[in-house]
Design goal:
By secondary structure, the protein is an alpha/beta fold. Helices cover 34% and strands 23% of the residues. The chain is globular and about 55 Å long. The protein binds acetyl coenzyme *A (ACO).
Length: 331
């Protein structure tokens, strides 16, 4: 196993819109049912941005809470990274909008686009930058307003997604045997890019009347294919991460998976042979919030005392790109 990267989560915060979309909201508009949504996805409700709420406003709220939790001010932050696939606009980056809202010194700020794996990718990249000694505290946020790219006439995708943001402050850790990123995996498979994408609105297919008429600015997903690959890749990820780290499933205090679908999470839990209380889920309340899901979970787990110093925690996620990644951390 490579040398641990000595980093710790110094603070966390989350922001969820107040507006709730229940399963009944979809049943009233589409040909679907409570049973179908619950059984296929595990989702009971999701939070959706209201007018005036956007990816940057949610990210900023989560960031302020993380700063307060870490007892830091924005002047202590050396870098801002926002993992998102629903940026404030094509440019500037959402991270720059967050920086504008927070104020503070002119530290680097940029977005990272790896869909549902975005927070894990960001966690790994941040760990290397912190270990290097170049930066002391990185504000890493996962923030999405998936409702802005969801086609509410497409029953196979619209029931899945929700909005929200989770922010963490990752800091260099002085102790050699203390908090650390112990092992990670980070992969992508561009050959699967058309399985899950927003086809229009970029340089490949700029916005036009045609793209709007054909609803190409919304998420298109080959659900069943993505589902099968998500299960396969998650299982491979878990096996390889634990084997390479020399850690057995019983050593893991808590698995925090990307909240994509309760059945995908359940297959991972069964592979690990862990009881339900060792795999955290909140998809029931928030749906799939893409890059925001893992940091929202981290914040809830810290608040509830589900993760505490010394615990081994496994983050694992799979998403569009296709991308997938894991991070085995000691809290
Ligand atoms: N209500 C009722 N029936 C529905 C609905 C609905 N909301 N949606 C689809 N159906 C029907 C289909 O039309 C199909 O009917 P048919 O058999 O008559 O053709 C049937 O249900 C089964 O459809 P599938 O798409 O095969 O259903 P599946 O069991 O695969 O569940 C789901 C669909 C929940 C979308 C699942 O495929 C999934 O979770 N996929 C992976 C999602 C994911 O992990 N994405 C990656 C992260 S997201 C990101 O990166 C942005």
């Amino acid at each position: 196993m490579p040398e641990p990267l000595r980093i710790r989560i110094a603070g966390s915060g989350r922001a969820l819109p107040d507006k709730v979309l229940t399963n009944q909201w979809f049943i009233d508009r589409l040909e679907t049912s409570e049973e179908w949504i619950r059984e296929r996805t595990g989702i009971l409700e999701r939070r959706i941005a209201s007018e005036g709420e956007s990816t940057a406003t949610l990210a900023t709220t989560a960031a302020r809470k993380a700063l307060a939790d870490a007892k830091m001010s924005v002047d202590d932050i050396d870098m801002i990274i926002v993992a998102t696939i629903t940026p404030e606009c094509p440019f500037p980056s959402t991270a720059c909008f967050v920086q504008q809202a927070l104020g503070g010194p002119p530290v680097p700020a940029f977005d990272l686009a790896a869909a549902c794996s975005g927070y894990i990718y960001g966690f790994i990249v941040s760990s290397f930058l912190l270990q290097n000694g170049l930066y002391r505290n990185i504000l890493l946020i996962g923030a999405e307003t998936m409702s802005k790219i969801t086609d509410y006439d497409d029953r196979s995708t619209c029931i899945l997604f929700g909005d929200g943001a989770g922010a963490t402050i990752l800091s260099a850790s002085p102790k050699t045997d203390g908090p650390a990123l112990l092992h990670y995996r980070m992969q992508a498979e561009g050959s699967g890019l058309s399985m899950l994408a927003v086809p229009a609105g970029g340089s490949r297919l700029p916005a036009s009347k045609m793209t709007i008429d054909e609803r190409l600015h919304y998420v298109k997903m080959q659900g069943r294919e993505v589902y099968k690959l998500a299960v396969k890749r998650n299982l491979e990820l878990i096996d390889s991460t634990l084997a390479e780290a020399g850690v057995s499933p019983e050593d893991i205090a808590l698995v925090i998976p990307h909240q994509s679908n309760l059945r995908i999470i359940e297959s991972a839990r069964q592979r690990l042979g862990l009881p339900q209380d060792r795999v955290f889920t909140n998809i029931q309340r928030y749906g799939n919030t893409s890059a925001a899901s893992i940091p929202i979970c981290i914040d809830e787990c810290r608040e509830m005392g589900r993760i505490k110093p010394g615990d081994l925690v496994l983050l694992v996620g799979f998403g569009a790109g296709l991308t997938w990644g894991s991070a085995l951390i000691r809290i």
